[in-house]
Inverse folding.
């Protein structure tokens, strides 16, 4: 028979191991952040955000075009991914058990697991090749296609958390079905849906593979959707594989900026969840 | 409209010991209001192939509280949900027979369930305030959705106050109308839901075990409220608490396995039930 002491020992060991696992789970992020800060912070300056890349050998320069390019790409991707994803999620939650719902649910899980490079190839096949050149639009479409399944499934999950009793309460007040879906169900789940959307944005902001042969990258200032556009991940890639120390430093700084954008979006997502059921709307 | 009175004149009622105190010996329905409010005839309600309510015919009087009692699963909530066409919102559910409310058939061709629900309010077992809305917006929710009537826009704040007054909640919340409804206690939330149902000035209000999730004090408040509501609206309350039925209602219907066993004035049903099954139930032999 086990003594109380041996049970305490076993319990203590297991608790210790879970503590260790919890710390190890956060360790990679902390190490990456520390390393990026050490390597990249020194190259960060106002010029990095406001200046264009300069030729090798010239000091200074920045990644203004890549920062703006990344924001443009996020914008296009959100314009495609959010409405389609939220709409599809609403459908899945409202028509849970139709054959179409099962199909959509399954296919969006498959799409979610698709390697991002494959999505890039498809955007190239359908947008780049017919048009004849790389473009910001093609990059945005590739990123948007990655967002759709993410947003669809989180929207569906958030809507399903809204209790049926709330739906019934609205119907019993004489709300039409569509009005119930939008002003009660969707509205109640909104904080969660916003969180899901921001997580999806954070997820695609740093994607490189789908941009390689769609947005392509651009050493010059461009915000045209029809032209190739610079993006932080692409710029980091180009600079990192170059033989120049100055470019390596810039790549570190770029990585730091990129990860800060992702962190900021994730923090915003956190805040959006926290204010759930908070401010009453009139 | 209480069907069993003639029967009792023929043979003297056998007095059974009531298990509950009866508060409302006389229905306070005045003679000119004796036209029935809800008339259901041969009403059956199905979930798929299973009948939850079987061939129920009942006339529920106006401006009175009618309780529906019966053991769990006897179809009392389903019957209630047939009176505002909520039953059909469940996938696979359907209704047979007819229901008239104040003379108009609610299942008639061309009658929209939305219009029915605007005239027949409903409150559920658990409080269901809309979590993203303020207290004020919750009460006004039913008004806002129906922009055609109610002269809503300008008069909303008066209607909100009146509804909260009628629900006995005004004094408690008048200084926090713009705060979240989720900050209220369970009992207050339930009275808020009653206020929300009253705001559209329905002719009928359906209560589906409104105190099932409340503590005794909140229950008492809701019961007092129900007792007062009969002056202005027709109330149908589903409860599996017989004491509650006896305390608040004028008439009581006993339902068993989807069938209406007996419908009589509350005092008669609890003191002199004519059906042996009712007697077994109210004396606590089953259920």
């Amino acid at each position: 028979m086990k003594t109380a002491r041996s049970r305490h020992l076993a319990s203590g060991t297991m608790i210790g191991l879970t503590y260790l696992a919890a710390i190890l789970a956060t360790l990679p992020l902390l190490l990456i952040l520390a390393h990026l800060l050490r390597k990249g912070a020194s190259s960060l300056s106002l010029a990095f955000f406001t200046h264009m890349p300069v030729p090798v050998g010239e000091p200074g320069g920045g990644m203004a075009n890549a920062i703006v390019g990344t924001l443009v790409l996020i914008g296009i991707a959100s314009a495609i991914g959010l409405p389609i994803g939220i709409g599809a999620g609403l459908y899945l939650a409202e028509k849970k058990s139709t054959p179409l719902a099962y199909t959509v649910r399954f296919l969006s899980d498959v799409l979610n697991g698709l390697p991002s490079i494959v999505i890039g190839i498809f955007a190239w096949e359908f947008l780049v090749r017919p048009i004849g050149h790389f473009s910001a639009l093609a990059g945005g479409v590739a990123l948007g296609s990655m967002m759709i399944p993410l947003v669809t499934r989180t929207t569906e999950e958030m809507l399903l958390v809204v209790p049926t009793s709330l739906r019934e309460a609205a119907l019993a007040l004489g709300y039409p079905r569509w009005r119930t879906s939008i002003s009660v169900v969707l509205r109640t789940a909104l904080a969660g849906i916003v969180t899901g959307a921001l997580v999806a944005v954070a997820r695609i902001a740093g994607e490189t593979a789908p941009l390689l042969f769609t947005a392509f990258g651009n050493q010059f200032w461009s915000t045209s959707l029809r032209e190739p556009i610079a993006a932080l991940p692409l710029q980091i890639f180009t600079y990192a594989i170059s033989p120049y120390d100055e470019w390596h430093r810039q790549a570190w700084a770029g990585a730091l900026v990129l990860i800060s954008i992702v962190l900021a979006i994730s923090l915003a997502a956190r805040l959006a969840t926290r204010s759930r059921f908070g401010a009453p709307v009139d | 409209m209480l069907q069993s009175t003639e029967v009792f004149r023929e043979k003297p009622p056998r007095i059974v010991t009531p298990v509950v105190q009866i508060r409302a010996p006389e229905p306070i329905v005045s003679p000119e209001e004796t036209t029935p409010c809800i008339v259901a005839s041969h009403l059956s309600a199905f979930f798929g192939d299973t009948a939850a309510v079987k061939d129920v015919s009942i006339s529920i009087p106006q401006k009175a509280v009618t309780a529906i009692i019966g053991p769990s699963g006897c179809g009392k909530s389903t019957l209630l949900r047939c009176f505002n066409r909520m039953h059909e919102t469940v996938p696979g559910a359907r209704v047979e027979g007819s229901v008239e409310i104040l003379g108009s058939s609610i299942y008639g061709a061309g009658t929209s369930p939305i219009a029915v629900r605007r005239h027949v309010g409903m409150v559920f077992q658990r409080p269901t305030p809309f979590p993203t809305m303020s207290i004020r917006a919750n009460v006004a929710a039913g008004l806002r959705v129906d922009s055609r009537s109610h002269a809503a826009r300008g008069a909303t704040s008066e209607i909100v106050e009146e509804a909260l007054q009628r629900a006995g909640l005004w004094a408690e919340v008048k200084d926090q109308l713009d705060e979240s409804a989720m900050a209220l206690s369970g009992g207050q939330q339930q009275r808020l839901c009653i206020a929300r149902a009253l705001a559209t000035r329905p002719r009928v209000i359906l209560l589906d075990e409104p105190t099932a999730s409340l503590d005794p004090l909140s229950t008492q408040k809701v019961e007092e409220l129900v007792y007062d509501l009969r002056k202005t609206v027709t109330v149908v309350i589903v409860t599996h608490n017989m004491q509650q039925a006896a305390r608040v209602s004028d008439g009581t219907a006993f339902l068993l396995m989807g069938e209406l066993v007996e419908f009589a004035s509350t005092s008669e049903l609890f003191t002199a039930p004519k059906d042996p099954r009712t007697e077994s139930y109210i004396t606590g032999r089953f259920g």
